[in-house]
Amino acid sequence: MDAQLKRGLIEACILKLLLRGDSYGYQLVREAQEVLSISESTLYPVLRRLETAGALTVYTMEHNGRLRKYYAITDDGRQKIDDFLSEWEDVMKVYDFIRRDA
Amino acid sequence: MMTREQFLNDLSAALSGMKEEEREGVVSYYAEMIDDRMEAGMSEEAAVKAMEPVQVIAGRVLEEAGMGETKEKPKEKGNWQEITRPADAVQMLRIQAENKRVRITSDEETDQISLRYCIGDNDIFRLHEDEGVLTLEHKLRPINSFVNERGSDSFSLESILSGIGKFIAGLGERVVNGGMFSYEAPENEIEITVPKTFAARLEAATSNARILAEDITFAQAVKLTTSNAFIQAENVNCAQQLTCTTSNSRIVMNDVNVDGARLSTSNGRITLDDMIVRGGLTAVNSNGSIKISDCQIGGALNATTSNGAIEVAESACPELTLKTSNGSIGGTLKGKREEYTVVSRTSNGSNQLGSFGEGEKKLTAITSNASITLKFAE
Questions:
Q1: Overall number of domains in chain A
Q2: Helices (H) and strands (E) in chain A, counts
Q3: Looking at the predicted structure, is the pLDDT value of residue A92 above 70?
Q4: Which helix (H) or strand (E) holds B170?
Q5: Is the pTM of this model over 0.80?
Q6: Which among B56, B68, B168 is the nearest to A48, CB-wise?
């Protein structure tokens, strides 16, 4: 898949998963893998980018005697999901057009 | 087997080029990934094995880190190039392009020549420098080599998706540029910026795209060539000859002061306004008009077209030859009737000018199937 396209899809997926509630790395990888193929090394820069863009915030909490990073979606992140969906309405129109029998 | 600690140490070492803080971020992220797997019931060995090899991770993280930096400073879309050279090191600037618009303008602050252009997927640019001649050559990739390069995956899902990605990116761009169909993509332009007075010769040739020259004084000859698109010069001085050649479009000169000019097109119009030509001016067109207003021409004016009118308004010239067919010749010339020797003729049209006089200035006006109404301002 085109790298640029995939990056956009992963970002949107991660934000969608965070919409369900705050989450941590391992859980995000497992859940995202149900929809698309993603590894830890792909997820890491995505999380960093979303954090830099203000789409999510990071906080650390103790879990079983160790520290774990949690990610929480922001209002900007919610807006990004809306943007993604409306952008893809246009894409789907093109998709339908290409798919349609001649 | 590789332990958790070994893995994390190796990873940290592989990321040694990164800032400490960022490196620790990555290492603690992977520590957490392993810990969470072990907590879910995996053995340490299995949890470490579930990770990608250290080199793969490091490669990706380092690559992304580079991208992350450019993300923060949003740069312009496309692969932009800017080439600058000290203007006094260039005796001649030559542009040879295909389907690229050319814009030549000046900057009072600079003593550099700057060439700015965007390299698209189909563009091949080459820069040559040889004894003061700076040449920027641009070619479009031939269509078959483009297909070959893409090979059999031209219609793969991947390339279609990538196309859709570019399409979306394009949507945004076009909106920014003021409407879907305005076609104002600066990516399609070679922008040349030179000092206010440009000492070198200039030859710019392109095709199917317009050429604009604005606010410059050229100390040497200028040659602008394109096709199927217009050439326009505004507030331009040229101490030598200005040559403009195009086809199927117009040539427009406004506030232009040159030593001599040769302007040639077809199926377009030639419009010259507020022009001073110390020597001769030749304007050649076909199937289009020639309009010369508020111009002072020191040498001979030769205006030739067909199927179009020639109009001279408030202009002065000691030797005019105006030839067309199926188009009228009209307007006003500065000067008195007695100053001219006039030869004019038409067929199937009225001739209000006639042939007369023995003045020093010469006027020849020839057309057919149309009238001649040229007058003197007196």
A1: 1
A2: 4, 3
A3: yes
A4: helix B157-176
A5: no
A6: B68
